[in-house]
TrEMBL record:
<feature type="binding site">
    <location>
        <begin position="159"/>
        <end position="160"/>
    </location>
    <ligand>
        <name>substrate</name>
    </ligand>
</feature>
<dbReference type="GO" id="GO:0006094">
    <property type="term" value="P:gluconeogenesis"/>
</dbReference>
<keyword id="KW-0312">Gluconeogenesis</keyword>
<dbReference type="InterPro" id="IPR001345">
    <property type="entry name" value="PG/BPGM_mutase_AS"/>
</dbReference>
<feature type="binding site">
    <location>
        <position position="61"/>
    </location>
    <ligand>
        <name>substrate</name>
    </ligand>
</feature>
<feature type="binding site">
    <location>
        <begin position="115"/>
        <end position="116"/>
    </location>
    <ligand>
        <name>substrate</name>
    </ligand>
</feature>
<comment type="function">
    <text>Catalyzes the interconversion of 2-phosphoglycerate and 3-phosphoglycerate.</text>
</comment>
<dbReference type="InterPro" id="IPR029033">
    <property type="entry name" value="His_PPase_superfam"/>
</dbReference>
<feature type="binding site">
    <location>
        <begin position="9"/>
        <end position="16"/>
    </location>
    <ligand>
        <name>substrate</name>
    </ligand>
</feature>
<feature type="active site" description="Proton donor/acceptor">
    <location>
        <position position="88"/>
    </location>
</feature>
<dbReference type="InterPro" id="IPR005952">
    <property type="entry name" value="Phosphogly_mut1"/>
</dbReference>
<comment type="pathway">
    <text>Carbohydrate degradation; glycolysis; pyruvate from D-glyceraldehyde 3-phosphate: step 3/5.</text>
</comment>
<feature type="binding site">
    <location>
        <position position="99"/>
    </location>
    <ligand>
        <name>substrate</name>
    </ligand>
</feature>
<feature type="site" description="Transition state stabilizer">
    <location>
        <position position="158"/>
    </location>
</feature>
<keyword id="KW-0324">Glycolysis</keyword>
<feature type="binding site">
    <location>
        <begin position="22"/>
        <end position="23"/>
    </location>
    <ligand>
        <name>substrate</name>
    </ligand>
</feature>
<feature type="active site" description="Tele-phosphohistidine intermediate">
    <location>
        <position position="10"/>
    </location>
</feature>
Length: 211
């Protein structure tokens, strides 16, 4: 029997709050972000799942979210792999800029294209397709084999690295993925079939808070 894959986007970070492009920069979680991670962790504890292994990115906000979740489920010593393959999309020259300032500099339409197109990267950065090009191989070689062996796997990562995974799992088109926002701290529980397709998906919490 195939296992379970749980995806969680990190809680709100300090730069989310300040409306800054974050990318590979490394701000801390806000108080709200810590609360969101705790809420997600409690939801998983109530769900009754025990994990075999965890994966997270090379960035602190995802690692701290994972730590809080594991504390809530009573698995603080869980084997964990960190890899920059799961990092947030690199926003390049936009990183650290206020989104309103970026619109003033490059224009509303251009910034919207960089943020929301599938394959147009910002200057010096990655498109969603570029992000997927590093997330997918890592998923296929490191994460998926464990799930197919029947393990319960937790992945705490970022809005865009997880969107590129959800795109494949949920079989979304390029247009559909652009409309999808993942709520912070809300676990998505996937049960996979032996052929790696999705048998079921359950969202443990309120997705309406997505931003």
């Amino acid at each position: 029997m195939s296992g379970t894959l749980v995806l969680v986007r990190h809680g709100q970070s300090d730069w989310n709050l300040k409306n800054l492009f974050t990318g590979w920069k490394d701000p801390d979680l806000t108080e709200l972000g810590i609360q969101e991670a705790n809420t997600g962790g409690k939801a998983l504890a109530d769900y009754g799942i025990k994990f075999d292994v965890a994966f997270t990115s090379d960035l602190k906000r995802a690692q701290d979210t994972l730590t809080i979740i594991l504390d809530n489920v009573g698995q603080t010593d869980l084997k964990t792999f960190r890899d920059q393959a799961l990092n947030e999309r690199d926003y390049g020259d936009l990183s650290g800029l206020n989104k309103d300032d970026a619109r003033a500099k490059w224009g509303e339409e251009q910034v919207h294209i960089w943020r929301r197109s599938y394959d147009v990267p910002p200057p010096g950065g990655e498109s969603l397709r570029d992000t997927g090009a590093r997330v997918w191989p890592y998923y296929l070689t490191e994460i998926l084999p464990r799930v197919l062996r029947g393990e319960k796997v937790l992945v705490a990562a970022h809005g865009n690295s997880l969107r590129s995974l959800v795109m494949v799992l949920d079989r979304l088109t390029k247009e559909q993925i652009l409309a999808l926002n993942l709520a912070t701290g809300v676990p998505m529980v996937y049960k996979l079939n032996a052929d790696s397709t999705v048998a079921s998906k359950e969202v443990l919490g309120d997705m309406s808070g997505a931003h």
